[in-house]
Amino acid sequence: MRQAQKGFTLIELLIVLAIVAIIIAIAVPSYTQYVQRSNRSEGKNLLLRIAAEQEKFFTAFNRYSADITGPRTGDPANSGLNMDDSTVGAEPDDTAWYEIDVVVPADGLSYTLRATPTGDFQSSDPCGVLTLTNNGVRGALGPAPDNCW
Question: pLDDT for 131-144, tens place per residue?
Answer without folding.
Answer: 999 999 999 998 88
